[in-house]
User: What shape does this take?
Amino acid sequence: MPTEPTPTPPDAAKNAQPASTTQPDTTAQPGTAARPASSAPTIAPYLTSGGGLLPALGRAWLKLNHWTCSPKMPGVTKAVLVAAPHTSNWDLPFSLALSAVLDIKINWVGKHTLFKPPLGWLMRAIGGVPVDRRGRNDSVKNIAALFEGREHLMLMVPPEGTRGKTKRWKTGFYYIAVEAKVPIVLGYVDYGNKIGGLGEIFWPTGDIEKDFEYLRKFYGGMKGKFPELQGEITLEG
Assistant: This one.
């Protein structure tokens, strides 16, 4: 399942973009994009299917489960995509079905153990990016480096970090966006109302307490498959 890297606040947070609905120019100039460090995760070629098969499969999955997909589109090509609430392995197939219906290619961060044989190739083919949280690797900077030189990357990160019980959201997703200088798109799977999709887009202000207050208002009332496992959207505890 998608996982959330251990956060290390980057220096970029000190000079974060103010909240704005206008996307700043973050397009890399030819020859200037730095290559990710050797310890950075890599993105494999994405599994594709012609003739609209994937959107059709996505619609079939949602119809079978009596779900609705919100038609709102993000309007950006590079962003950290929040995946919340995250309480079950079922969140991934619902998220993939929703992205297929919206015809949006997403990648997602997952624990490295998910990518071992025999199904590791499939995890990569459906957009998985393995991250090893052991040791002292700077996960935030390594993941943020994936955005360099790319015209399109919607990287899904679950702030709760695990489908198990967690006390509160982790902050790695926030600092990845700050480090990469990309906006955050608020994705959701609301099992209570059987609806999912993409919500608001906002640029981190650098005032993480204020930004988390905004996140609490947006996700308030949404329920995961197992609500008792949801983490609080807070920096305390």
Observations:
- The chain has one domain: 54-204+213-229.
- The two ends are 24 Å apart (CA to CA).
- Residues 54-204+213-229 form one domain.
- Confidence is low (pLDDT under 50) at residues 12-38.
